[in-house]
Amino acid sequence: MFVRWSRYFLPTRKDAPAEASPRLRLMLRAGLIRRLEPGLYGFLPLGCRALEKIERIVREEMTELGALEIRLPRLRPAARGNGLASKDLHLTDGKGRRFGLGSSHASAAISLIGGDVNSWRDLPLLFCCEGSGYRDTVGSWAREFPLYEAFGFFADQGSREETHRYMLRAYSRVLARCGLGFRTAEVPNEASEDGSSLAVVVFEEEGDEEIAWCTSCGYAASRCLADVGSPGPPPGTEKALELVETPGVRTVEGLVEFLGVSPAQVVKTFLYVGKRGTVGVLVRGDHELEEEKLRRALGDRSLRRVDDPDEAQAIAGAPFGFLGPVGLSVPIWADKAVRDIPAAVVGGNREGYHYVGAKAGRDFRVEGFLDLRRVREGDPCGRCGAPLRIRKGIRVAELLRMGAAGLTFSDRDGRVKPVLAGQYSLELHRLLEAVVEKHHDDFGIVWPVEIAPFHVVIAVLRPDVPEQIRVAERMASALGASGLDVLLDDRDRSPGEKFHDAKLIGAPVMLVVGHRALKRGEIEAERRWDGARASFPAEPTEVLHGVWGLLRAERG
Ligand SMILES: [Zn+2]
Predict the structure, then answer these.
(1) Range list for CATH 3.40.50.800 in the chain
(2) How many A from CA of 175 to the centre of ligand 1?
């Protein structure tokens, strides 16, 4: 089978909105997607072809794992408190009943099997499900997106861990077939049992995921929760605590200049209010506080920084710039690096004053020393001490361990136990995006063969010349019959435009049917990924042989 471009809907564009990311612009220009509203995209026929090829690969790998396909409704009622999150889309129907659209079908999958899983004999179970996810996150290009999920239900940890490993291997095969490498990284996830999940991230120059990655031991985690090692103590020896006058000096830089200390000897004090009251939080002057780490460590997602000067004054008795841990009446938590400072500069809790020579544990009580620092490039890895690198990436998949909402089964010994569950999700739009980011050049997309929407574009230079069309159609039929997807460019456009568009949409092979080569009895070919050129006798069997040869060659 082949498709005639003149009867296909494949509008290419010279320009795309500047505010979109480079890969999104390319997807818009190459006629894969169109933006309907901010955060809402539709897939054009070419985009659908690419998605279908990716879906086919995913389905094959899921079948290989033995996952059984199910279908689930997108809507779920909010009434039973079944995990509607604030980031989900909330809807109300005409009768006032509330529903949600979420980023996962997990709760529906649990409801689906809930009444039918009773015994250890029913487990394990593995399902896969195609659908749409919804997200209300700022910075996410698509609020509604194509999603391929799998759900596992298990009687014990061992069987869940085994499926986790198999699923990761399946994802790695999917990505390899899409021409992508990846890393796994721990990322925060509220839906998970332990507050985090394993993300499959494709590293790219441009990406909205920041991953701290250790080149030595391979440890990788979302920047906001990556373990960071001790930077070692700053210079100095223990001294007696002393209150000194620091008129108008409110910043770390100001103290460095005024007192002649290094930023690492200064301690910054923040106040946070959460569900268990107010706490003080300390980090070194040359470090930044990572709020996600603080919220996770204290188990309180409601923690918010006190930023009202009156509130701070009421709690500490001093304005911002002079807050400190000495004599502070609220529980204090500190970053690990604060423990090692022999003589620290801290706020005096009195306007115009700081303490020098302060020592944690001696001059002020600390409830606990935690890892609260925001990771920077070059910080020591929390596992091995080697320098961490910060890389950007695109998160394409996520694996997490979750509870099965009270689902139980009776085990071999007759005891009733909770069902364990795993959720595995692959965001197809992110995968497509990562492919475009990874496989493109200045002229357009350079599709890996296995997921190319079209394998071959046949550019007919003069579609008004019957001989050229006749030859092109014969070649297209032969190539199509051999299993290749062929786009016959019979549009009334200039050769230049046809070459430009063929490169933009990125088919691995372009065939050119033109007067000069036909006179020699030949058809010219060009391979997209390396520009390799060839000429084949204008006979279907010769062209077929030649095109397959071009496609099968090892891609550097
Ligand atoms: Zn390491």
Answers:
(1) 454-552
(2) 25
Start-end of CATH 3.30.930.10 domains in the chain: 13-227+391-437
Q: How far is the CA of 287 from the centre of ligand 1 (A)?
A: 20
Query: So what CATH class is 13-227+391-437?
Result: alpha beta
Distance CA 58, CA 68 (A): 13
Compute, in angstroms, the gap from residue 498 CA to the centroid of ligand 1.
Answer: 50
- The backbone torsions φ and ψ at residue 250, rounded to the nearest 5 degrees and listed phi first, read -115, -10
Centre of ligand 1 to C-alpha 293, Å, is: 19
Distance 433 CA to ligand 1 centre (A): 29
The alpha carbon of 375 and the centre of ligand 1 are apart by a number of angstroms equal to 13
Backbone angles phi, psi at 519, to 5 degrees: -60, -30
Selection from 70, 176, 103 nearest residue 449 by Cα: 176
CATH class of 242-370: alpha beta
CA of 366 to the centre of ligand 1 (A): 28
Cα-to-centroid distance, 388 and ligand 1 (Å) = 7
d(CA 131, CA 45): 19
Provide the 10 A C-beta neighbour count for residue 446.
22
What is the helix, strand, coil percentage profile of the chain, to 5?
A: 30, 35, 40
217 CA from centroid of ligand 1 (Å): 4
Could you read off the pLDDT tens digit of each residue along the chain, which spans 556 residues? 899 999 999 999 998 888 788 899 999 999 999 999 888 999 999 999 999 999 999 999 999 999 999 999 988 777 555 555 666 778 888 988 888 887 888 989 999 999 999 999 999 999 999 999 888 766 677 888 999 999 999 999 999 999 999 999 999 999 999 999 999 999 998 888 888 999 999 998 877 889 999 999 999 999 999 999 988 899 889 999 999 999 999 999 999 999 999 999 999 999 999 999 999 999 999 999 999 999 999 999 899 999 999 999 999 999 999 999 999 999 999 999 999 999 999 999 999 999 999 999 999 999 999 999 999 999 999 999 999 999 999 999 999 999 887 899 999 999 999 999 999 999 999 999 999 999 999 999 999 999 999 999 999 999 999 999 999 999 999 999 999 999 999 999 999 999 999 999 999 999 999 999 999 999 999 999 999 999 999 999 999 999 999 999 877 6
Domain with CATH 3.90.960.10 in the chain: 242-370
- Tell the CATH superfamily of the 454-552 domain: Anticodon-binding domain (3.40.50.800)
281 CA to middle of ligand 1, Å? 27
From the list 377, 519, 515, 520, the residue with the least C-alpha distance to 459 is 515
